[in-house]
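Final report, Chapter 2: Outcomes

The project's central promise was a pipeline that accepts a single protein chain and returns its three-dimensional structure in a standardized token representation, suitable for archiving and comparison. That pipeline is now operational. To close this chapter, we reproduce one record exactly as it appears in the project archive, with the input sequence first and the structure output second.
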Amino acid sequence: MHLIYLDESGNSGNNLADPQQPIFVLGALVVPEKKWKQIEHDLIEKIDAFFEGSVPENFEIHAHEIRNRVGIFRDIDFEKCIEFRNELMQVAIDHELKFIYRSIAKKRYATWLDRTFGKGIAINPHIAAYPLVSQTINTYLRSLGDDELGILINDDNKEVVSDIERTTKILRADSSHLQLDRVIEKGFFIDSSKSHLLQLADLCTFHARKREEVKSGFPEKNIDKRGIELLEPLIFTSNESMPDVLAWLTAQNKRSGEDPSGVESPSGGRSRR
């Protein structure tokens, strides 16, 4: 059994024209259940050492806060913050975890939405990324053997909870290669503050977004370079197809009379961007 922690980065909701966050990333950290306890222990040990035994109440690992030295990191030395980030990501490497992610270029996605559903229709990019990520998770679990299964544990994003539950149910019953036959249960949504492993997924997903921004032509910043390098050995990829998923999203819209975000299609009401 594998515990699969999903988080997102670059979420601007249905605002697909945000110049500060041009790319959305959905990431999944795959954790074998037998390693869970030791990884949790190692993360707690790193956190305790960083704060010298005086961990702030309700502390939570947030990549953005560590990188930009905000919140409780405001008065902590820059180099110490970056080393802390590196040590946390090294825990994932030491335990040979796998990280799966998919990026959505928002402007290109917005163009497809307009062309397919008409002007102004909004579908959160999380909904497009999720079938791609879940398909790759399924492929990875299949590669491990006939009996390998996984449970999805999502950050509690209330914007997409019902959409993801609905999509998971449909994909389980799907007869195409998008079918989820290795993911059991319905998927769980938890508060990230309650899970160090979900917080580690946040750290990985943030640097996956930085990696994709560099690939898209944005300048690489020194502050992100080592984080991106540490992510590389964790990444698992397969031949998941964006066109296949876009076709699936379109088919779901035609079949149900609703767009995959759960709002009425252009034949009924509209969800405007």
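Archive annotation: Residues 2-256 form a domain with the Nucleotidyltransferase; domain 5 fold (CATH 3.30.420).
This record, like all others produced under the grant, will remain available to the consortium after the project formally closes.
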